[in-house]
Design goal:
single chain; mainly alpha
Length: 83
């Protein structure tokens, strides 16, 4: 399974809220509109570290936080590349 597919799957599991309309996940979706609050993002990062063995926020030299889902996924894809 690709990193993108894993991220999408984890987000869908975390943001399940009965009776609440949530936007469809797309690469251009701003993270603030994803339906995840700050706790949801923390849970997502923890789950991704467990599943992928990656924590790009601790190991990469990113200069600004990701704004879109695409940028978030790219952090993980870049962290998965051998140094």
């Amino acid at each position: 399974m690709s990193i993108r597919a894993i991220v999408y799957s984890e987000i869908e599991q975390i943001r399940q809220k009965p009776g609440k309309h949530l936007p469809q996940l797309t690469d251009d979706l701003p993270l603030v509109e994803s339906g995840l609050d700050s706790l949801g993002v923390a849970i997502l990062v923890t789950r991704l570290e467990d599943n992928l063995g990656l924590d790009p926020f601790a190991t990469s030299g990113f200069t600004s936080p990701p704004v879109t889902l695409r940028e978030f996924i790219r952090l993980y894809e870049d962290a998965a590349q051998p140094s």
